[in-house]
Specification:
single chain, 295 residues, alpha/beta, 4-stranded mixed sheet, 14 helices, 50% helix, globular
Length: 295
Amino acid sequence: MQVEYDPRPCYELVISLLAFLDNKGNKITDLGPKWLKSVTKQVPDGYGERYRKLSPLPLVLCRLSPARTAEDFLTWFAGLSKQEIITLLLPRDEKGQLSRLDVDELHQQWLEGLNIWQRVYFSKVDPEILAQLTADAQERSRQDWTSEEQIERATNGVTLEWPGLERVVLVPQYHYSPWNLNDWGAGEYCIYYPVDVASTDLASPAPALLRGGRALADENRLRILRFLGAGTRTFTDVVKFIGLAKSTVHHHMVILRASGLVRAHVTPDNDRYSLRPGGMLRLAEQFERFFEGDS
């Protein structure tokens, strides 16, 4: 299985917009409601409401585009015909959604929405954020790791158990951190993995430390970790063991996944979970370095 990194900024243009439009997801990202409130003041009135109603813009278009910058992607996207869009997306249209969409109308609406987003928000994103995304991908690509290790380390605990995969593309992203996004099709699996952008304030704990501390500060989450330490489990297994409502267990698993203490075994059918080997040790080392003032 071939693993490659693709840190082009055009991805972050689309990912940042999707993060803004995701009413549920943007409440549990590191940027959180404060970022959402700030950006809402920047975009035109009604912008969010209008574009949330549309079918999401497929991230795979960034992957299939030759563009590197956000500006180049917008130019390329504007020049696509209906047939070109269908040709690009059809190999990944496993559910037959294209036949139910007005591709021409969506193309024009998303082009308008992206141009507005680029003008009022993305063009003003700190260039250092994009530089750190590129640096992270370059550093990881230089490591002498197996394909499985590349994926697991970048995604903070994902292992792909997906027959027939020929290529995995790892794309660094900031706006959805600490979550992984993904899409797949035509023998390719793409994971948009989170990168913690370094802060200049070394006296403040990194996001990873805050997530780790939050994960361990609950009795039920500690019990779940012990349960996962005994073997690989399904979500249903965890619900039966802990005896709480599915929504509550989902909340706990979200926090544990974000902490990097749980490994997700991603399959075409039913994901499973286990205790991530070395996860607790890595977290302890991070805490120790922070307490000792080692940046």
